[in-house]
Design a protein that fits this description.
By secondary structure, this protein is an alpha+beta fold. The protein is built from four helices and four strands, in the order ααααββββ. A four-stranded antiparallel β-sheet has the order 1-2-3-4, with helices on one face. The longest helix has 22 residues. The protein is globular, with a radius of gyration of 17 Å.
Length: 148
Amino acid sequence: MSISRTCALLLALLIVSCTSTDPEVSKLLARKAELEAKVAESKDDWESDFKLRVINFQLETREGKHSPEELCRYQMKCLGTAAEMESTRQKGRYPDAMAALVPSSFDTIPSCPSGAAYEYKMTHAPRDEYDFTCPTHGITYNNLAGFQ
């Protein structure tokens, strides 16, 4: 790790520890600083950039810029994008479980802001198709049809 990156991370952690009393926000801000440093170091690090975008949206929601349902939809769309990226790595095969999306696309699988876990259903016949469903909001994201 370069000295400038180490200094940036230490400064970010100091700022985080002084500005937030919510431990989850502090954790997100620290991870954001770490990912920003990685992205700045390597412009081709699309995995870190993807994780950073998810964290930014989560933080913006906590700031009141997005509703919990908007965050839910965004995260479900990101799960779909991550499944597509995984299928590219796996020569066209979608993951059988969401756990396959960690650590490449997510540090942990996101959940609905209500705390409910998203449900994942994969169907291989007659063609590969997947659904991510939020039991709280009653919405489903399908790779072929979008939101339903």
